[in-house]
Amino acid sequence: MASIETITIGAVNYSVYGLGNADPVNDADEYFAATIGETWSALTTLQKQQSIISAARLMDRALLFSGSKTVAAQARAWPRDGATNSCTSTAVADGTTPDDIAHGEFELAMALAADPTLLSSSGSGTNTKRVKAGSAEVEFFQPTIGTNDETRLPQNVHDLLACYRDGSNILPSSGSLSSGTGDSTSFDADADGTGPDWNPSEGFA
User: Fold this and answer.
1) Distance between CA 182 and CA 139 in Å, rounded?
2) The whole model's pTM is what?
């Protein structure tokens, strides 16, 4: 399991996520050693430290995780009690931090090092209701801004953390999905092909 570790810059200590080796920069170095095309190794130690600290802060601000902090006054969002992994439908042991949290922090740290503007980016959700181009038209039944389908984080980071979100939904955007060809349209309530389907002749309440 991951753990809370400390990075010291000057005389100030910063709490971040690590993999239990007491050196989160080294943890990140080892993580990226197996990543093709990585640019992490080109950073200075200070740049790596700043990137990891910034990533930990942004992760904790951008996502609402399931459960609650183990200690209310702790610096980071993890470890937590009552958290769940919704992808496997299993509970996360109280007082622990999954490795995915540290891995997500490392991936976000490298992304921030490449593009610091991510720190102030807006959400990736949408309030768009309808998009039309010629005869093709898509209508979104439920906007994503302000919902669990919105994320300010890069997709690879979100993929690592989504299972631990409060009310996490890893399916495509929540709400109904419409599809059809010609004059036939069907509606899937669960947006994943598993929910009940209705056609216009069945009516609605």
Assistant:
1) 16
2) 0.71
